[in-house]
Structure formats: structure tokens, C-alpha cells
Amino acid sequence: MHGVARSALSVLFMIGSAMLLASAPADAEDGVLRVGIITDMSGQYSDGNGMGSVISAQMAAEEIGGTVAGRRIEIISADHQNKPDVAVGIVRNWIDNKGVDVVAEGVNSAVALAIQNLTRERKKIFLISGSGSSDLTGKQCSPTSVHWTYDTYASSNATAKAVVARGGTPWFFLTADYAFGQALERDASKAVTAAGGKVLGAVRHPFDTADFSSFLLQAQSSGAKVLALANAGSDFRNAVGQADEFNVRQSMQVVALQVTLTDVPALGLVHAHDLLFTDSFYWDRTPETRAFAEEFFKRHGAMPTAYQAGVNSALRHYFKAVAATNSVESETVMAQMRKTPVNDFFAQNGVVREDGRMVHDMYLMRIKKPEESKSKWDLYEYQTTVPGDQAFRPLADGGCPYVGKGQ
User: Fold this and answer.
1) At what angle do helices 330-339 and 306-325 cross, to 10 degrees?
2) What separation in angstroms does the CA of 113 have from each of 68, 145, 210, 242, 259?
């Protein structure tokens, strides 16, 4: 769904959710388990998250029969507009006045970090899918959060190693100047250096930049052989498209450190082809991913991104923990989630670690050339699997203050 139609559906869904909430008591014992999906409904991340994440959450509720531990599951949603203060205001109202038991999604790392501060304080579970900063399980971790889908360490680690191993060095970064981009540049720089490569510099651009010409000229004049894009959404699309306008690939290899499935058809394979990147999910990888994707496509008209798939997987695991413990109390449910392996279409033998990181395999991918693609969503070629314990930052290196102190 795109444009006016999707916007209209978003508004109608939020109005309907608001009416449900207005008529329902907010008491935690009213026989309702409320899930709040806080996401980008109107900005540059709305295609890869947005209403697709809400639909994915609805699917997870339906898969468990719409009720768990004697409670009817209710999904509500809101648009945080990529503003941390707006997001915190919404989530605070949900928790304090609307009886929301668990918050999920949270795309945009600055937004997620702000929400995590609140949910930590209120002792509510936060299932993070769309946000990437590895700080969410590092020094700013929370005993009531799970970082599910990916993070900047895992996204950059395998990609940097693969590129350097193929002779790709030295590097120059084009970085979105907010929490996500900064963390991605930091984590990728460490991976490049550890693999024996060099980093010559970086330039940072504002969030939602339209003109990358000055930044690309700085990259070209740096003498680097690799241009690493530490951004996402329309920033990623604009940077790749304009890099081709400036013939950057004649002298530099362009490396994508974070790719969202929906960005590729929007950008076009003529620009996106042959970019290497690491992801946690691809709809056409296994029979299980295809089955989930086909049902999602029927409802949304697009194949699911990793973030949307992660929302479903995280809520499945949460609902199973609620059912097993017959409780929505955060500490009880979190303990059950940590001790239960994650086995579904998204992850096999995934583990919810003490710092809140859900550790699972990641996949090195290449974006196909136009002539290799058989359909709109036939976009990636699988390269190799990166085992979870190699993809994600070691527990001891994150600096999470809760590790080893009990929960």
C-alpha cells in the first residue's frame, strides 16, 4: 500500500484503535493484553516499518488465536514522527493511562533510546525491531528490553570483513548524523580495522537529506577506495542514486551497511545492483520465510522487510512466554523469554541474552543485477551465513550495567 491509500488506512486504523481504547478500561486486570506498536507511519521509514509492522503484529496475535493466558490481545499503534519527545509522550500515555502491557517496534535509534529510558523506568517490556544502534544493548541497555532483529554491530561486522577480505580498503564513511548512523560508523570502523583495513575519514549529513553532492565530492577527494553508506531509508536511496550521477563507482566501491527491502525497488536495481550488505531476514530464503511472506503480502501488497518480520517473531516469543507463565508481569515474562530458544521462520536456536540482545544468524547478501531479477521482489542473492555468536558483539564487550547483577 502506498501514498494516499496507505495514509488513509493508517489514519483509519489509529482512529479505530483510539475508539477501542476509549471504550475499554485501562486496568491491567480487565482481561485484555494490550500491545502498542510505536513506529514511523509518515516519514522516510514508513515503507519498511509503518503499517506493515502493525499488520505483522496483528498476524502474530491471530497465530496464537487472538487470546493468551485468558486475555484478549489488542493491538494499538501510533506514529512517532521520528521525534523522540513525541514517542515518549505517546508511550507514557499508553503505559500510565491506557493499560499497555508491551511496547514494540520503535524504528529510529534516537526514538528507541528515548522509549527504552521510559520503559526501563516503568518496568515495561520493549521489543525493539526497526532500530539499529548497538547502544541499546550496550551502556544504555535495559533489563526489560529485547533488541530483536539486527544492530549496527552485526550489520557492519560481516560486511566489513567480506569487503576487506576482497581487497576493499581504505574506507570513507557517509554517515547519517544521528544515533543510528553514528553507531553504524563506529561499529563498522572497528570491524574494518580489525580485519586489517584502514579508515581515512567520514562526513556526516543531516537526517532526511535531499542533496548529497557536497558529501560525495568530499568522499571522492579522500583517496579512499570504499564509500561506506552509514544511513538508511530515503537517505540511503538518495546517496546511492546520486553516487551514480557523480560516477563514484568508477573510483570507489559503494558498500551499504544497512539495506531495507522496500528501498531496493524504490531505488531500482540499475542503481542498487551488486551492493553487498548483511541482513537478518529475506522473504525468499526458506520455505518458512516464504510462507510468512505470502500471507503478509496478501494483507499489505508488499513483501515483508526484516523489521516487519522481526515484529512478528518478537511478539510470537512474547505471547508464548505469557502463555507459559500465565502472567504479563515484566520480570516473569522476561525470565521465560530468556530461557526459551527462539525457533520460528525468523530464527533458529535464537537466544535472548542477558543484555537484551536476541542472538541469531545473520546473512551476507548481494543485490541482484536487473537481468538477474525475475520479479519486483526477487532482489537478493544469498552469499553466506554468519553464525549469531560471530555476527553480534560479545556480551562482555557491550558494557551493559545489568549483566551479571541479576534482573
Assistant:
1) 110
2) 29, 11, 26, 31, 21
Task: Give per-residue pLDDT as tens, 127-184.
Answer: 999 999 999 999 999 999 999 999 999 999 999 999 999 999 999 999 999 999 999 9
| Structural contact between residues 162 and 276, judged by C-beta atoms closer than 8 angstroms | yes
- Grid cell listed for 38: 510505536
Give the model confidence (pLDDT) of 182-217 as tens digits.
Answer: 999 999 999 999 999 999 999 999 999 999 999 999
Q: Tell me, which fold does domain 3-150+285-360 have in CATH? A: Rossmann fold (3.40.50)
What are the sequence ranges of the domains in the chain? 3-150+285-360, 153-279+362-391
Whose CA is closest to 139, among 401, 406, 357? 401
The CATH class, in words, for 153-279+362-391 is alpha beta
Contacts of 290 (CB under 8 A, 6+ apart): 283, 284
pTM value is: 0.92
